[in-house]
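[09:14] KT: can someone run the structure on this one? pasting the chain below
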Amino acid sequence: MDTKDIILELRTKRGLSQDELAEKVFVTRQAVSRWENGETVPNTETLKLLSKLFDVSINTLLGSPRQMVCHCCGMCLDDSTTSKEIDGVFNEEYCKWCYSDGEFTLDFWKRYSELGGEEKFEKFKQQIIGEFNALNVDGLPEVESLNVLSGSFINLEYTFPNGTVVKLLDDNATYLGNQLPCIFGGNRCFGLAANMEFILVCTYEENGESPELVIYKKR
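[09:31] RB: done, structure tokens below
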């Protein structure tokens, strides 16, 4: 849908007249009419007001011209998962689990200061990458990068030989990790996770089905 159709649809769903919408975002009725006729597009500041009023992202107002992805955990974003600032304005760079009310919620981001800033954080990531590669896990390709991941998305349930079902991660914590295909092919891939205390390697099928723990090692 084009911006003109989106604004018309959102206004109609709210039961607002063009005059009422214009009043709420501090423009004239004629401006609203031009938007809905496709003659003009709201400016940046007005898009922010419309975004907050209709509770949709600016990306949605513009017809979703780009695929939004959380710059922290990498998940795809839509209006229901995108973070917001304290004033309710969407922050379209992060998901609501990684960033909330003007602050990063994930512990690795908060540890930037402890680690001496982004440069030392990057060195720490390289150290973890080296530790994964040193494991020489059969079928695991060389690890080249790690992302900051929310535990709630990678906390799989492993069934031990005695039948015990265990989760080894914390849904509310953050980890450095990645997903990599097996070099031998097949429908299983490797999942990696690490923090200050341990590194973990597992395998699973699509969507995290049938997970198996390969290595859980204290650092």
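[09:33] KT: thanks! The mean pLDDT is 90.
[09:34] RB: yep, looked fine to me
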